[in-house]
């Protein structure tokens, strides 16, 4: 071969290099003026003739696609538009020509096989007027092909909704494009082609032929039908290299180098940090472990020596000190409580223990580990370990109480099933022999839930003293937090006069204070262990920003964060990297899994799919590959116990190559050999970010953690301030021990378990006496019993996680009503937004269409449908102050804070059919509103500041929204309170909304929680407002950040916001003079659209204050 005819591999390399150089030129800033640059771009007389011919094809294709996409009913598949293009060019249109165009404009043109359902809009057997027309390429056969060849051009036109630039949360509407708009779009795309060719020619050396280079590069863009690959395994064998085992995979450093060489890599990595490996440090126990325990540790865990933090903690516990251990993930903290358990069982085989975990998945993981350890320990093989949770059949519970030595449970069961029936446990001597109590993941217990847990622990300690187990030592672990309580009998009180606790934590800012708050311990008796002796492998951290679809056309927006996440996940899995992808909510998990399955099947990666557990019977093809990626949700709701155990087993054994999860698996579950963690969106808190990142690298190997930012302001803030992700301290965990609502509830429970006396103040604090006098019943001997309104079972009246809502049952009636199968149950508050007739409900990655809803029986009938679109509800939520119970003056102002009855009004009035953020159809539905009442606090905004905001073109809704966030950012219990977040689609629409909202800041208790947090916010309104003002005024950011007005919990993504507006409102409420010149005019083009949705407030009527006692708030 001559130099003009190099080897095939060389041809590809040269072509790739030329196109990469062209891409470099494309993004390089030009020094020429805009007019000069356009003149240069339009000059294409110097082109080789081939590019003129290709331009003719491009212009014809561009025109046809622009016309087709202007009418939403038409599908843009290659066969359906081919003849139209050929009629214009008067020559055949070959796939290779389209591939050449794709090579020139890879970000603009989509040319690939996709599942047929990906372009369907409706699922009826006959086409409707809204359904894509497949007739142009339909085959006359009984079975249509599973995949179709899709041909699309990216576009930024937004139809009748107006605007030229779509934000992350905006949607492209389906209205018909005008001829003028179509012409403009065609011209813009033609200019883009000219620019791309000029860039290629500029990047091509004089010794190379640009036409040859383009043709060589285009070979990689010729799509291959996945069915052809499936039926002909020899096709493109180099693209389907076997997935290496986890042991044989390349180092993460090398894989990242390969990643940056991929054609789709566009400098998405905006920050990279490397944590170097660390050698382990060992320690010694005094006294030494018995030979049996040493043998068990060695044979079941391969542990021959203990790390220094393990030895220090166990030695301190053995010497009578309380201990808290704060070390990293996967540092072996479970050994800290498992070794003492084995010692206790060796000394006394009647010893019993309770292990408490926040999730059932974690409990199953740790139960299996303990059983393996016991089986390996000579003399302890017979020890019975049992699960005692909501899944345990009632008929088995008595046997567990009688024969189990260790039970795995949760605080819900302790509160509702163990403490109320302590006589059953006492009768079997389980509590009398209790020596060890384990409560895992201590950081999980904070806020309202943690306040409940703190009172439950005090109730438990009180009962244990009464039954004879008075010596308590406890190991708590947070972020694998563990609590271990050792009980001894009364005669030992002369040697140890306080309860011993050992706490293990990796993420909480002040573990000592949190341990004291949860268990009421004396901090002087606690030894803190923070030196981590466990070894770690090298870890790479990446911050990932989605690239623009086209650098020259920012109006096209950025690539979807979901598409970026699935592309990265596929890349890593193909190289033997075992990946977990964390999503913030269940629905995103389902969408990610569905996208991943479609992409893998389109690539023909059946070598990966063959590792999937088979699903047969009536399931679709897509469901049969479910085993590749298992969805593990934060809540276990809806899954049967057997199904959940199977999923957990697959995850723990490392059988899966990839896992998609919400934050359930950020806890200390050992989910096998994970090499990489992907986080799709900022996971609400810094603690969660670090916990999720710690899931990978649990086997001392190198690992990877990637934060894939969404388009939301909170994510962009951390992209621009990466040091805060790694260096900033996490917030303190808060426990409200003085919350009278929670405290009274648990004192009623404690009085039912055993009569209360004033000496119990050592458990429940100084408020006990007042609560006893006014809320409990006193007998003639001076003992206090529960109020009669709480009988017969006070614990049943209290849900420590909030009131349990009624649930709708979702059933699959795809085959028939008689063979219906229950899929899951969802609460009313979720069902309102996720279940409506004609909508899509996704269960474990499978799409179902809602066929019927029976509100009287709370039954929802679903039919499985093989579609690739989703539905998004069209809804609104109003939070209305109905009745004022109390008022409180805001210090040094004429304004007041209000507390009272609040109504939550939710209405779904329709839905969008959507694909890739594009609206395919708009559907109206009739549904009943969901109305619920709770309590909340509010502050009215003065009219004068509203007018000032309008004069500055600042939307009052944005200012109020940001002021609410500023308030909550300074309120310690903000995670347990809600506010009325402002929606972008309402505030920024051209069409004015008829819904007007009163100008007030409003915060309320979540429906059904009854936590009293809103009352706390009301009581501390003045101080919180002043802190918010200082935070906003002193913050150096320009448009708002997490330190002032952005909230990671905002359900509308902080899109509607205004920092200057928030500052003005806070000053007005606090009666501080506002200099109008200090408030800048709004300049954000998006915020200038839409209409004002805020009106002046009207007084909320009151009721007599004495009928609603609430804390110590003074009323006027």
From TrEMBL:
GO terms for cellular component: nucleus. Residues 314-526 form the Helicase ATP-binding domain. PROSITE patterns: HELICASE_ATP_BIND_1 (PS51192), HELICASE_CTER (PS51194). CDD domains: DEXHc_Hrq1-like, SF2_C_Hrq. InterPro entries: CDT1_Gemini-bd-like, DEAD/DEAH_box_helicase_dom, Helicase_ATP-bd, Helicase_C-like, HRQ1_WHD, MZB, P-loop_NTPase, WH_DNA-bd_sf. Pfam families: CDT1 (PF08839), DEAD (PF00270), Helicase_C (PF00271), MZB (PF09369), WHD_HRQ1 (PF22982). GO terms for molecular function: 3'-5' DNA helicase activity; ATP binding; nucleic acid binding. It comes from the Eukaryota. GO terms for biological process: interstrand cross-link repair; nucleotide-excision repair. Keywords: ATP-binding, Helicase, Hydrolase, Nucleotide-binding. Residues 564-741 form the Helicase C-terminal domain. This is DEAD/H helicase.
